[in-house]
Amino acid sequence: MKEVKLPKRVIHKTPLPLIADAYTIGSEQFASQDAKDKSIYYITFRRILEKINPTLYSKGDNRIVFHGLSRIIDYLFYEATTQAALDEAERCLATAQVTTEGLKPYPFPKHLWERVVNEFNGRPPISIKAVREGSVIYPNEPCVEIRSEAEGFGEMAAWFESTLLKVWASTEMVTQLAHWFEYCKSLVKTVYGETLPQSQVEFLASCMLHDFGCRAGICPQESEWMGADTLFIFGGTDTFSGGYQAWKNADEAPGVFVSVPALAHRNVQGYKNEADCYNTMYDNSPNGTINSMVSDCYSFYDANEKYLLLLAQKSADEGNNKIVVSRPDSGDAQEQVLWLCKFAHKHGLSRVETILKKEWRFGTTYKFIEGDGMTWESMKEINEELLIHGFVPWGWGVPYGQGGGKRNGLKRDNLSAKYALCAVGKEDRPVCKFSETLEKTTLPGPFKLLRTKDALASCKTIAFASEEGEDAMIPYFNGADIWDPFKDGFGESFQTIKERIRTQMLTMPKSLTTDDNHNYPATDKVRDERISLLRQYAPKKLAQNY
Prior knowledge:
The chain has helices at residues 22-25, 33-37, 69-77, 83-93, 110-119, 161-164, 167-192, 198-206, 220-230, 240-249, 265-269, 274-283, 300-318, 333-346, 376-388, 412-415, 453-458, 494-507, 524-537, 542-545; strands at 39-45, 64-65, 97-99, 102-104, 126-130, 136-137, 142-148, 210-211, 236-237, 290-294, 323-327, 350-355, 358-363, 366-368, 401-402, 417-424, 429-430, 447-449, 462-464, 474-478. It is of the alpha+beta class. It is globular, with a radius of gyration of 27 Å. It is 37% helix and 15% strand. The model has no long low-confidence stretch (mean pLDDT 96).
């Protein structure tokens, strides 16, 4: 039987020891004995949200939605590493160190990795605990803890810093969407006041954004991961690879993601007559279909006046519930959206409803979706203009498709994500970093994270592990448990995480910042230990920090 001739692969599976940066791979040789014996690290996000984007984040609202850890743990540890992978890593590093005497092997603790293979079933003996995915956290709170679980493996707890720290990306994506959802709910209440039940407010708000991000991702993996993250807040998407990931993690539940048939510019260009493309789509769609028709291939205004209006009128006359959605993709977005709403209203393709003594206009068979470079700022501006003229944004379809606008601004610096050492040695000796910038300092640990009513009310949620109270961080992974390394926090269902986001955004405080805690909501014992270390290492900074 003839076989397909395949070339050499260009995407290779990276050996686990090489999924790290240079100063991690080579650090074991100069680490302290305490750090080698045992090390404990934590991940935290240190930035006040309004400093990232005051348009998106309201002043005094610092709720961060944690997400993405299970996916990274899956990527790192689901498959065990092997001796062959270690040998491959060693070959790769054989000429990776540049010296004044030529290329030499880069330092690499192969003896530790051989123990990983031979004693721990190919998974490093570190443990990872964290808050549950979808939980609300606050700046400077520890949300992930990584610790070595076998003597001599302290440096292994730092090995995956660069990869585990990438939890910032999903966290920021979901956080910004959760806050945009809060804005969308406020829009609904602008029209309806408090007359609607919460479930109806949330439903209308959830219809106000559609993911156009499939082509915006830097790589296929980003499109899948970020596309799936979007669906925790807004269910409409064109990123079906992300939809698939969410669907699988929702146990294949229906309705996890939705979309509608949509024309591309190439479809319109394929016809000699533009009208034939629109008519073909309309004629071949069943009753009740929502058809997204790109309308700027040649002229946005001509397409609507000559073709799309006629189809929307036909739908209204026949009562077939087909919706014609005009989709501009260039031009002045605010001008086009307002023009289309007025145009539809002028031709009787709207309904007027009096709500709280004010008349509002809703689209019927003729609506729009604007997707040309939508940012948080531009969408807010269009919404304000629509409301001034009595048009209800969500009453005219899913008003916005957003792709690059919700991911082009994502970066680690936004949340100031940090992977920080907090304790070393067999006795868990607390350590911390005192930077020249207060916002970049860290806290001594090891910690527990409190979520009691009193802790939240007093803004003292970061406690030592030895203090009273139940830890909100739970185990996700423990490589030292060689036959059962994946723990309760790992791999919760999509629906569970989605409901947790919804519930906690409704119930958790907006901020844990007080006049004197410098955005570090720690207990007195943690604060006192930090002062003690500050007095020991940088006494001149006491006045700056406290």
